[in-house]
Every structure is written in C-alpha cells, then in structure tokens.
C-alpha cells in the first residue's frame, strides 16, 4: 500500500488540474421492440438509458469512471443498477523490469480469461503488473451488492429461486498470467474461483433425506484455463482454450433411503473452445469466423442446476450465461456448439454492417440441457439456427439496428407444447444524448 499512498496526493492534484477540460460524460438511450416465439411467446418493449462519466488521473490511462443504467420495459418493469464506480491508477515504470502497474478500486467490470464463464461487475480491487512480454493480473471482489436483475449469476437452486433485491453473496478471486511468445502468439493461464456465501438457513443440510421441494445447496466452483491465440497467416487469427472446472455441488444420491440422501459431491468438468477469424478488407470490409465450443455433460444429471445423482458431477457450469443465438440460448452445460459467420459492409460509403450466422447445437451426453422447453431425453442433435442482423450508424449520435433469427429444432428436442419452428426478431434505435 505504500506505493499508492505515496503517489495518491500527486495524482489527485494532477487530476484536479485536468478535470475541467478532460472530463467526459454522456447518456445513451436505447429503445427496442422484440418479438419471440420460442419456449413461450413474448413481446418485449424497452427503453434503456446508459449514463457515464469519466475523468483522467494522470496521463497514462488512469482515471475515475462511473457507469449506470436504468431500463423501463415490458414485461420486466423498471430495472436500474450501477455498472462501474471505480478509480484506476496507473504507475508508469515503477520498477526496472516493470513497464507499468495498474490498480483499480471500486466496482469494476470483470471478464474471465475465456469470456465465457464470468462477465459481471465486482465490488473489490484488481491489480495488473505489466512486464512487457509477460503480464500478471490479480482480481478479487464480491457479487452480492449487484441487483438480482443485473447479476445473471445462476449456479444454484437458491440463485434460481431468489426473489431478493440483490444477487447471491459470492466472493470471487482470479489470477491471470499471459506471455507473448514468438511471432505475437500469446499463452494465457487463468485461474478463477468463487465461494458461495449463501446463509445455511436457506439451504438443505448435508446428509438429510430428500427430496426437498424448494431448497438446494451451496455451489462452489473453480476454473483453470489454458488459452492460446495468435496469427496463422496474414489476416487469419486463431484462438483455442481449455478449461478444467472443479468444485462442490449438493447431490441427491439414491441409497437405502427410498428418496435418496443429500450429499456434497465434487465437480469435475471441462469447457473447450476453438475458433478462427479471417479478415478480408478488399471484399466489402468483411470478416469471417468459425467457432466450436464443447461443455461437458453428466448422464446421471436430472436437471441442469444441482441435478447430480451419482458419483462426481461432470456437468460444466459457467457462472454467467453467454448469448449464442438470437432465438436459442442454452447455457454452456452439456453442449456442443458450432458457429459459422460473416460480417460485411455492403455499401462502402455508408456505415451499415450486416452479420449472418449459421449455428448448430448438440447435446453431448443424454441428459439435462439448460434451456427452456428442451426435454431431458431428446436426441443428441438439437437443431440449427440461422441469424441475420444489421446495424446502421445513421448519424454520429443515432444508430439503428435489427435482428432476425430462426431455430429449427430436431423432432423430439422440445417439449410437445413448444412450437416446432421458433423465430425471434427485434428492432432498436440508440440515440446518444
Ligand atoms: Ca454424475
């Protein structure tokens, strides 16, 4: 702490001098109208305001940042939260080998090494040591001051059923080291862990007889990731990652007790992803992408959340969900995902971008899928989706966008009550005030 202590008064003085000219603030208003016929038919209409305020501290990229959003809509009602409220201090050349040291304190946006496991605001601190070709980042924080509606962390039955204003209390810690190797190839090693601090009176006690109609247990998880990325040939880039997940989850194990007994069992699961991106500036400024993701499943899992009934839980569970398709969005659990896509600017003189994607969804093992409407005993190949979206920057302060997607589930994938052809579309306008 001595380093920040010594530099703080100086940096704040520098900030105060530059604040009058360098501060920036703004509000974006996004109005959207959507229609979806997926597991349930829904019409959504919302207006979202995103406000932000920044001012630099020093001249090396540090500063104060505040971001908040408020949304009024149908059917969600009114939602509002603080997304960022943090001070970042950057010390250039604090040591002989250390190129820069960056320290953040407050509520900051955290994203894990893969970008697929946790994307969430954390209340805490992060520190980044940059040694040039080697970088070390430590992050820590708490999730329970973010509102339930903003949080999207769903790991346990308690998360699923919570009607509290705030998200489940969890402590998150992460370490990431990356090395830039030969020819701009980067090797990244990331460790992420979260501990569930849900109060025991809201949980089932271990060794009690099941089933409990409402309560579940704690879900603690750890993720260890190895990631490579870099260029293949000119304008062609690859990325590949492998994540091993460990942890503990409450499991209802059948035994001499007819309905089973609750017991904590280890989680041993994996997530792997690989992708290539090819940029072709001469062909309508286009880029083309192929991606695959595999998230392990568990054949004895009765549900996607706390469903283990035998041995270890081999079902991969991310902390927050990732958007895969416009229509179909299963969680990265027991899933094979295949994506081919391209984006281009069809009219060179107009800032209009079109993105098209073909997606495929596969159930890796017979068992639960975490998506509404999908039955447990369905076929391995769940279906394909085609998505098209476009966005047009009409003026510097007005952007208009639209998206349309169609999902074609394989016969038997969806419950009988769900339409066999599902589609979703939305239109939106974003105005910078
Ligand atoms: Ca199992």
What does this structure look like?
- The protein has 433 residues and is mainly beta.
- It has one domain: Porin (Beta Barrel), CATH 2.40.160.100.
- It has 3 helices and 18 strands.
- The protein has an 18-stranded antiparallel β-barrel.
- The longest helix has 21 residues, at 2-22.
- The model is unreliable at 1-8 and 10-19 (pLDDT under 50).
- Residues 298, 300, 308, 310-314 line the site of calcium ion.
Question: TL;DR of this structure?
Answer:
The chain is built from 3 helices and 18 strands.
Q: Structural class of the helices, strands and pairings? A: mainly beta
Bound molecules: calcium ion
Number of strands: 18
* String of helices and strands: HEEEEEEEHHEEEEEEEEEEE
- The quaternary state of the protein chains shown equals single chain
Fill in the CATH topology.
Porin
Helix count equals 3
Largest sheet: 18 strands, antiparallel, barrel
Shape: globular
Low-confidence stretches: 1-8, 10-19
Radius of gyration: 23 Å
CATH architecture: Beta Barrel
* Overall pLDDT metric: 92
What count of structural domains?
A: 1
Distance from N terminus to C terminus (CA atoms, Å) equals: 40 Å
CATH classification class? Mainly Beta
What portion of the residues fall into strands of 2 or more residues?
over 45%
Helix fraction by DSSP (H/I, runs of at least 4): under 10%
